[in-house]
Amino acid sequence: MMQAALRKNDYQREWLASFDKCIEQDSVYDADELMLRSGAEYDTRILHLPLLWKKYHTQLTKGQFGFGGGFWIAMIREATHERLRGGKDNRYVLDGARSGWDGEYIEERSEGWNEDVVMDADSGGNFLGGEEHWRQFAVL
Known about the structure:
The protein is an all-alpha fold and 140 residues long. It contains seven helices and no strands. The relative contact order is 0.15.
């Protein structure tokens, strides 16, 4: 979800990149070099998770992503919670390759986000809950 949010040239962000694609494009390490030599059998790709998370998180929260990082953090949180809730429901069918976002959904959510930000600014920061509300966007 984080990688999809950071794709500036993909307005729809409808499809998620595979874990292998994220590793290939965004990890600078070779998993075999990172692998612990304990003899345990496991998928060495998991060693990339903290590296990818740190890279994407930094881009979203430290201004490297530019204006709108807070919006995407909120979108990622919501989509992640939805996936976790859905995974517990046997009736829920998850299309793992889709983000759950499309251009219309992003535009609708963005307009609502912008309206809330303006209302918050007009109310001196009290509309959304003040500093406590905005602090949550410093970390994903």
